[in-house]
Amino acid sequence: IILVRHGESQGNADDTLYRSKPDNLIEVTDLGTKQAEQVGRRVRALIGDATVHIFVSPFQRTLQTARSIRKALDDRQVIRTSVDPRIREQVCHALAALQWFFATPLPSTR
Fold first, then answer.
1. Could you read off the pLDDT of 46-70 as tens digits, one per residue?
2. Do 30 and 54 contact (CB within 8 A), yes or no?
3. What's the half-sphere exposure (Cβ side, CA atoms, 13 Å) at 65?
4. What are phi and psi of 102, to 5 degrees?
5. What contacts 24+ positions apart, CB below 8 Å, involve 32-38?
6. Are 90 and 75 in contact (CB under 8 A)?
7. Per residue, what are the HEC states of 88-103?
8. Mind giving me the DSSP string for 44-75?
9. Catalytic one among 27, 53, 89, 93?
């Protein structure tokens, strides 16, 4: 089992983005794509010609990361790619956005 976290995301680069864009739609940055491509090459070096099953969450950044990793592998190596909504991070950024919302003073009504 090789576990991989997504490459740098728009939310990693700018955590205020979580206030205006749903967490599942946050994408990887150009750097995140390069990181995922590098991970793909490292995975290929680890597994050689072995076959793999890829399991990924439905979040855009994880799907993009999986696609970049898959490019480093031969098509015949990937038996299946499964999108599984049970595979996901804890939704910490949603909590952070709520924290920001409740910590921000309301405008004066006077």
1. 999 999 999 999 999 999 999 999 9
2. no
3. 28
4. -75, -20
5. 32/6, 32/7, 32/8, 32/61, 32/64, 32/65, 33/7, 33/64, 33/68, 34/7, 35/7, 35/8, 36/4, 36/6, 36/7, 36/64, 36/65, 36/68, 36/69, 37/68, 37/69, 37/71, 37/72
6. no
7. CCCCHHHHHHHHHHHH
8. HHHHTT--EEEEE-SSHHHHHHHHHHHTTS-G
9. 89
> Is 93 annotated as catalytic?
no
Q: How far is CA 11 from the centre of its chain?
A: 10
89 catalytic, yes or no?
Answer: yes
Lowest-confidence range among 8-17, 25-34, 81-90, 101-110? Answer: 101-110
Rounded to 10°, the helix 60-70/30-47 angle is 50
106 contacts: CB under 8 Å, gap ≥ 6: none
Catalytic residue among 6, 37, 53, 93: 6
Query: 40 versus 86: which is more confidently predicted?
Result: 40
